[in-house]
Amino acid sequence: MSRKRSRLDAHARFERERRRNLLAQPGPGELILVLDHLKPGFNVAKIFRSAQAFGVREIHLIDIGPFDPAPAKGALRAVPARFFAGLDESLRRLRADDYCAFRLLADGGEAMQRARLPGRSAFVLGHEEFGLSAAAADLPALSIVHPGAMQSLNVSVAASIAMYEYCRQHPGPD
User: In the chain, fewer beta carbons within 10 Å around the N or the C end?
Assistant: First the structure.
Protein backbone atom coordinates (compact mmCIF):
# COMPACT_ATOMS: atom_id res chain seq x y z
CA MET A 1 0.00 0.00 0.00
CA SER A 2 1.37 3.42 -0.85
CA ARG A 3 2.20 5.90 1.88
CA LYS A 4 -0.33 8.39 0.45
CA ARG A 5 -3.08 5.73 0.47
CA SER A 6 -2.19 4.84 4.07
CA ARG A 7 -2.48 8.50 5.13
CA LEU A 8 -5.84 8.79 3.39
CA ASP A 9 -7.10 5.66 5.15
CA ALA A 10 -5.91 7.02 8.52
CA HIS A 11 -7.61 10.36 7.82
CA ALA A 12 -10.88 8.57 6.95
CA ARG A 13 -10.64 6.50 10.17
CA PHE A 14 -10.01 9.70 12.15
CA GLU A 15 -13.06 11.44 10.68
CA ARG A 16 -15.25 8.38 11.36
CA GLU A 17 -14.00 8.13 14.97
CA ARG A 18 -14.36 11.90 15.50
CA ARG A 19 -18.04 11.66 14.52
CA ARG A 20 -18.50 8.72 16.91
CA ASN A 21 -16.74 10.74 19.62
CA LEU A 22 -19.76 13.04 19.77
CA LEU A 23 -21.51 10.24 21.70
CA ALA A 24 -18.64 9.76 24.19
CA GLN A 25 -19.57 10.24 27.83
CA PRO A 26 -17.26 11.95 30.36
CA GLY A 27 -15.10 9.57 32.34
CA PRO A 28 -15.89 8.96 36.01
CA GLY A 29 -12.95 11.07 37.23
CA GLU A 30 -12.57 14.83 37.34
CA LEU A 31 -9.19 14.87 35.56
CA ILE A 32 -8.89 16.61 32.18
CA LEU A 33 -5.90 16.33 29.86
CA VAL A 34 -4.92 19.19 27.57
CA LEU A 35 -2.73 18.24 24.61
CA ASP A 36 -1.08 21.47 23.50
CA HIS A 37 0.02 21.26 19.84
CA LEU A 38 1.22 17.65 20.08
CA LYS A 39 2.34 15.99 16.88
CA PRO A 40 -0.76 14.23 15.59
CA GLY A 41 1.03 10.92 15.21
CA PHE A 42 1.39 7.98 17.55
CA ASN A 43 1.29 9.72 20.95
CA VAL A 44 -2.15 11.33 20.77
CA ALA A 45 -3.94 8.03 20.16
CA LYS A 46 -1.92 6.30 22.91
CA ILE A 47 -2.87 9.06 25.35
CA PHE A 48 -6.55 8.46 24.54
CA ARG A 49 -6.08 4.76 25.28
CA SER A 50 -4.52 5.46 28.68
CA ALA A 51 -7.11 8.15 29.40
CA GLN A 52 -9.90 5.63 28.98
CA ALA A 53 -8.12 3.21 31.30
CA PHE A 54 -7.72 5.91 34.00
CA GLY A 55 -11.27 7.30 33.66
CA VAL A 56 -10.28 10.76 32.42
CA ARG A 57 -13.23 13.11 32.09
CA GLU A 58 -12.21 14.54 28.69
CA ILE A 59 -9.27 15.55 26.54
CA HIS A 60 -8.72 19.00 25.05
CA LEU A 61 -6.84 18.94 21.75
CA ILE A 62 -5.16 22.24 20.95
CA ASP A 63 -4.56 22.72 17.23
CA ILE A 64 -4.02 19.00 16.63
CA GLY A 65 -4.89 17.78 13.17
CA PRO A 66 -6.13 14.37 12.11
CA PHE A 67 -4.33 11.38 13.57
CA ASP A 68 -4.60 7.64 13.09
CA PRO A 69 -7.01 6.47 15.81
CA ALA A 70 -5.99 2.80 15.48
CA PRO A 71 -3.46 2.82 18.37
CA ALA A 72 -6.23 4.17 20.65
CA LYS A 73 -7.97 0.78 20.39
CA GLY A 74 -11.44 2.39 20.38
CA ALA A 75 -10.76 4.91 23.15
CA LEU A 76 -11.53 7.85 20.86
CA ARG A 77 -15.13 6.61 20.93
CA ALA A 78 -15.19 6.59 24.73
CA VAL A 79 -13.24 9.65 25.93
CA PRO A 80 -14.79 12.98 24.94
CA ALA A 81 -12.49 15.09 22.76
CA ARG A 82 -12.82 18.86 22.76
CA PHE A 83 -11.06 20.67 19.92
CA PHE A 84 -9.66 24.17 20.43
CA ALA A 85 -7.70 26.45 18.10
CA GLY A 86 -5.59 27.85 20.97
CA LEU A 87 -4.61 26.99 24.53
CA ASP A 88 -6.08 30.21 25.91
CA GLU A 89 -9.57 29.08 24.83
CA SER A 90 -9.17 25.75 26.66
CA LEU A 91 -7.81 27.47 29.79
CA ARG A 92 -10.78 29.86 29.88
CA ARG A 93 -13.14 26.90 29.81
CA LEU A 94 -11.19 25.11 32.56
CA ARG A 95 -11.25 28.21 34.79
CA ALA A 96 -15.00 28.63 34.22
CA ASP A 97 -15.46 25.03 35.40
CA ASP A 98 -13.25 25.61 38.51
CA TYR A 99 -10.32 23.50 37.31
CA CYS A 100 -6.76 23.99 38.43
CA ALA A 101 -4.52 23.59 35.37
CA PHE A 102 -0.90 22.46 35.70
CA ARG A 103 1.78 22.47 33.04
CA LEU A 104 3.85 19.31 32.94
CA LEU A 105 7.54 19.95 32.42
CA ALA A 106 10.49 17.64 31.82
CA ASP A 107 12.27 19.39 34.68
CA GLY A 108 11.46 22.23 37.04
CA GLY A 109 8.36 22.82 39.03
CA GLU A 110 7.09 20.80 41.95
CA ALA A 111 7.62 17.05 41.89
CA MET A 112 4.27 15.56 40.93
CA GLN A 113 4.82 12.67 43.33
CA ARG A 114 4.90 15.16 46.24
CA ALA A 115 2.24 17.61 45.05
CA ARG A 116 -1.29 17.55 46.42
CA LEU A 117 -3.49 17.54 43.35
CA PRO A 118 -6.97 19.07 43.60
CA GLY A 119 -9.92 16.94 42.54
CA ARG A 120 -10.56 19.18 39.55
CA SER A 121 -7.13 19.06 37.95
CA ALA A 122 -6.08 19.49 34.34
CA PHE A 123 -2.64 18.53 33.04
CA VAL A 124 -1.29 20.48 30.07
CA LEU A 125 1.21 18.50 28.00
CA GLY A 126 3.23 20.25 25.32
CA HIS A 127 4.71 19.49 21.94
CA GLU A 128 7.52 16.95 22.10
CA GLU A 129 10.03 19.33 20.50
CA PHE A 130 8.71 22.86 21.01
CA GLY A 131 7.13 22.60 24.45
CA LEU A 132 4.09 24.48 25.67
CA SER A 133 2.27 27.49 24.25
CA ALA A 134 2.99 30.88 25.79
CA ALA A 135 -0.50 30.83 27.36
CA ALA A 136 0.74 28.12 29.76
CA ALA A 137 3.57 30.24 31.18
CA ASP A 138 1.68 31.33 34.31
CA LEU A 139 0.34 27.89 35.21
CA PRO A 140 1.85 26.08 38.18
CA ALA A 141 4.46 23.58 37.00
CA LEU A 142 4.77 19.91 37.85
CA SER A 143 7.42 17.43 36.81
CA ILE A 144 7.80 13.69 37.15
CA VAL A 145 10.89 12.85 39.15
CA HIS A 146 12.81 9.97 37.61
CA PRO A 147 16.22 8.93 38.90
CA GLY A 148 17.58 7.60 35.60
CA ALA A 149 19.85 9.47 33.22
CA MET A 150 17.24 10.14 30.52
CA GLN A 151 16.44 13.88 30.34
CA SER A 152 12.75 13.48 29.59
CA LEU A 153 10.00 10.93 29.06
CA ASN A 154 7.94 10.30 25.95
CA VAL A 155 4.81 12.47 26.20
CA SER A 156 2.41 9.51 26.19
CA VAL A 157 4.42 7.82 28.96
CA ALA A 158 4.51 11.06 30.98
CA ALA A 159 0.75 11.46 30.52
CA SER A 160 0.17 7.91 31.78
CA ILE A 161 2.34 8.46 34.85
CA ALA A 162 0.52 11.74 35.58
CA MET A 163 -2.86 10.02 35.24
CA TYR A 164 -1.73 7.25 37.55
CA GLU A 165 -0.57 9.75 40.19
CA TYR A 166 -3.85 11.63 39.98
CA CYS A 167 -5.81 8.38 40.40
CA ARG A 168 -3.57 7.34 43.29
CA GLN A 169 -4.49 10.56 45.08
CA HIS A 170 -8.17 10.44 44.01
CA PRO A 171 -9.11 6.75 43.85
CA GLY A 172 -12.83 7.35 43.39
CA PRO A 173 -15.48 4.79 44.23
CA ASP A 174 -14.52 1.12 44.33
Answer: C
Catalogue all structural domains in the chain, each as residue range(s) with its CATH number: 3-169 (3.40.1280.10)
Residue count of the chain: 174
- For 98-147, how does the pLDDT look when each residue is reduced to its tens digit (9 = 90+)? 999 999 998 888 999 999 999 999 999 999 888 999 999 999 999 998 76
* Among candidate residues 90, 147, 163, the one with its CA nearest the CA of residue 155: 163
Identity of residue 114: R
The Cα–Cα gap between 74 and 55 comes to 14
Q: Against a cut of 0.85, is the pTM above it?
A: yes
Helix axes 155-169, 42-54, angle to 10 degrees: 10
